[in-house]
Amino acid sequence: MKKYFSIYWLATGMLLIGLMNACEKKPVNQFYPSRLFTPTSISIIAYDTLVNISWPASLYTSTMHVTYTVQIGRDSTFQSGADFTLVADTNYLVVSDDTLADRVKYFVRVRANATGGADSSYWVYSTSSFTLTGVQIFGTLLNSDILDNAVRLNWTPTPGVNLIVLTAANGDTMHVQVSSTDNANGMIIVSGLQPGTTYTAQIFAGTKSKGQITFTTKPALTGNIIDLRGITGRPTVLFDTLPQIPSGSIVLLARGQTYTIPSTYTFDRTVTIMSGMGFSTPAVLLLSSNFDATGKIDSIRFSDLVIATNGAQYLMNVGNTATIGTVSLVNCTTQGVFTNSLIRLKTANDTIRKLYVNNCIFDSIGIQNKYAVFYASASSSAMIDNIEIHNSTFYNIYYFIREDNVHPTSCVVDHCTFNAFINQGGYFINYTYFPANFVLSNNIFGSTLDPTNANWIKSTPNLTVTNCFYTTDCVFSANSIYGATAYSGSSTTLFRSPSTGDFTLMDATFAASYKAGDPRWLP
Fold first, then answer.
1. Domain segments of the chain: what residues?
2. What are the average pLDDT values for consecutive 10-residue runs of the chain, which has 523 residues?
3. How far apart are CA 504 and CA 514, in angstroms?
4. Cys bridge to 152: 122, 145, 385, 511, which one at CB 3.0-4.6 A?
5. Which CATH architecture has domain 43-125?
6. Do 372 and 430 form a contact (C-beta atoms < 8 A)?
7. Three-state secondary-structure class, residue 93
8. How far apart are CA 240 and CA 26, in angstroms?
9. Could you check whether 143-216 and 225-521 share the same CATH topology?
10. What is this structure's pTM?
């Protein structure tokens, strides 16, 4: 019995020992590759001044301390080498424009570095490039900021700004030092530029770029130049000179001087009337009576002028039979109250082939006598065939455009601001037969003068409306506005001071997102 008991306990003990050995964990061999696996992809998110570069960790490296080499270069193949080589101990990297240059196209490649006996991985290349847009403190350049040999640059005053570098298309550079006073004013005039040349201006605080802007200087004036700038004390000199000059002449007026039109002058030849180039106040045309036209004329151009009334009801009121190729108004403003139209055709078969308006501010037109700013009447046969209006502001107006019973070709109104417009049953635009090409784009419509008796566009035209907006006080009693997007506030909310003609956009988010309206009012 004792023998049996001893054998029993001996067997039991051996069994327990065996079970314990069976349950004991045996070490698992860790996989260590001879070469690290290549990261599978690269993700790039670029902002204005920094870029976030990330990639999936190499396979089988969770227990290894792996670092990665990140190369950034301008060549997608990196055959010409890398501009920057960085090492990261994570699978992402944030790089700012303290390291990278702004406005340069970069590519990225990444590899896992050798460790623990494993060789470095192969490179993985980005499938797309990135560019840091950089800080932009330069303001918008208006047409009036650019001359043939100079430019007026403006920017948001910024600490440390001390240099502007201008680079011409041929690579020539000009370095302009910015004083502390210039920086405080946020403005400098750069002279000595070449006519008709494209320049890129870059502004620096030390070595740090703070913005870049590109512009093209105006071409030098050529042709038959009639220069009246040296004649002073004769306000009628323009009126006296116009009948004597050959067709195609360019008449230069002195900036800051006033030139009177004491009675109606009738154009019968091609002419350009303009202020000489400069940054001071434009010349003033003071009209006691309007201009007329007769016969066939290639073009009549008004440029860089203040068009003021001293009793005139129109700028042009064409009462003779006339066919004009182009009437253009560029960089012009009005002064005073024009009780009728700015331009009116009133005689049968009068024609303007093209009316071109750019960078103008026109106000106080047509309200008293219920006239349109641009009006072709004449018993339904006068016509402005093509109308093209850009980057301009119109306020305190009765009608905008009216043409009766004719078939014009086109009307394009782009990047314009309207406010305090349409009353007494007037229409914004009134065509009997609408142009085949009829486009309103990037415009802002502010308050209507008479919400109870104002009309949008007569009937239902084949009209294209894109990126246009209207304020809560832009209200039409009939022919309601359509195609435009409602803005959540009134004109007094959106504009800085509409009652005084300041339509600077006060909603910075709206301005940045949509860039609509006359560009001069962008903050």
1. 43-125, 143-216, 225-521
2. 45 49 49 77 93 92 86 95 94 92 94 87 95 92 91 97 97 97 98 96 94 96 94 97 98 97 98 95 98 98 98 97 98 97 95 98 95 87 97 97 94 98 91 93 97 87 93 92 94 97 95 92 90
3. 14
4. 145
5. Sandwich (2.60)
6. yes
7. strand
8. 112
9. no
10. 0.72
